Amino acid sequence: MRTEFIRIYKSVHTWTGILSGLALFIAFYAGALTVFKEDIVRWAAPPAAIAAIDLAQAHELIARTLAEHPEAARDFKLHLQPAEHLPAPMSWSIKPPDADEHDTLAGRHYLATLDAAGLPAVSETQPSQLGELIDILHRVVGLPFDNDPNRWLMGVIAALYALALVSGVVVLLPSLVKDLFALRVGKNRKRMWLDSHNIVGFISLPFHIVFALTAAVFAFHDGIYALQDHLLYDGRIKELLRPAGGAKPALKAFDPAALLPPAELVARVQAVAPDFVPDTLQYLQATGPRPVVRVWGHDPQSISPRAPGGFAVVDPYGGRLLSTDYLPGKQDAASTTVSSFFALHFATFGGTPVRWMYFLLGLAGAWLFYSGNLLWIESRRRKQRAENAAPDQRRDVRLLGALTIGVCLGCISGISLAIVAAKGLHGRVDDLNAWLWYVYYGCFFAAIGWALRRGAARAAVDLLWLSFGATLAIPLSSLLALLWPALGLWVNLSTASLGVDATALLGSLALLWMARETARRARIGPQDSVWSDTPMRKLEAVS
Predict the structure, then answer these.
(1) Using an 8 Å Cβ cutoff, are 301 and 280 in contact?
(2) What is the model's pTM?
(3) How many CA atoms lie within 13 A of 262 on its CB side?
(4) Neighbouring C-beta atoms of residue 166, cutoff 10 Å
(5) Which segments of 51-147 does DSSP mark as H helices, in order?
(6) Within 13 Å, how many C-alpha atoms sit on residue 512's CB side?
(7) pLDDT tens digit string along 123-152?
(8) How far is residue 125's CA from residue 114's CA, in Å, rounded to a whole number?
(9) pLDDT tens digit string along 470-526?
């Protein structure tokens, strides 16, 4: 391949990576955590004060609750598998008319169970937004609002990401056989980082291609569906997607006591999908003219078409199976193909081993963008000559170095502190969910400001120690809850919650090692490097 073409593709790879790298670091780091989002929410959930009930009592709970609270019939859930973050078997929300459909926490939220006398006990609650905070950071690359403009921005970044992948492969092709698995460890640190960057990038390339394509589709899917509706369905796509079966008789549809028992609905689905494990029944328009129940769950032998799993659509009065278009293992070829893209993005296949693989690949992807910025900075270093004083580095190099440190380590420490705050501030502040955002963004922007003020080398050591302490605070808070219950903390002893503690402990040890190695390099590394702890001029842009 001609040298000039390689040079062009290398330039494209460099600048698309620079433009999207910091945003993608946040998306990948937060995305790695969303693989175990439910486990993190369970870790932070306070002990439940509402008693669970047997599935046999669920029919009575639904009928009596809907009789007293008919507004719940529009959309409520019955949780079949109790967990720390699901304190009651029945829940629903009343959203304001102008609420964003993607905002799952908008409006007022209610829980219901049966008391000792068999009467419905309804209470208002405020669900934790910890999982949503991490997920929103992932979906809109660190921006605070999951709205259309931010999702479109994410789509643009995903397009740049795809361009960086293609150009990177083209640049690597001429030396693919020779350099792919060559990790040259020695005094030339830049070469070692470049080898590592190439190895991780090429091995995880299929993973990154899937992420780039699906992220762009998710960002622009509303526009894609609107165009599809106009060109292919003549504006009738909603009508075509409506469940079959026609309207129910008015008397039957408006009588919640006539609903089939949940256990029977579960049995009807498992009769056609024996390996399907239901965990939630979502009732939609339960007392309206077209009531349906989505039986949500997972099949460990099949892919799940959505992040929460898959579902079958059932008639809650007659028990007839209305649709298996989203039921794992029962989808046709076309539906399975579409669901595969969701499954590949959300790791909803292969069980726990695949989730751990995605978690590690997500962290490796975050490192890939960090190392790409580091390589750009090192490539533009003004080298010291003989015994002359270390030259002053270019302002853009120093600025990118500081931003890389501030954004990346600010994201890590901010998320860790938000997780700790979800437990530590519970019951101590009026609006815990708002405080989670204050903690994250306060730490994030403070880290950027500190990096700009101190410079990349010094701030890297400081912020790595902060990230170490913030991440170590996660298992320490559980330990303190065991040793001193009077502190008002708690520890959930489920496997999911203890797994969060163990993972955070390992992560904090990795950050500790990085802090020590970074401090060592700042002391004894080349004095002409951006990462050297030598007297540096403050960035003129912020001084």
Answers:
(1) no
(2) 0.85
(3) 27
(4) 15
(5) 58-68, 130-139
(6) 10
(7) 988 888 999 999 999 988 888 877 778 888
(8) 16
(9) 999 999 999 999 999 888 899 998 999 999 999 999 999 999 999 998 888 878 766
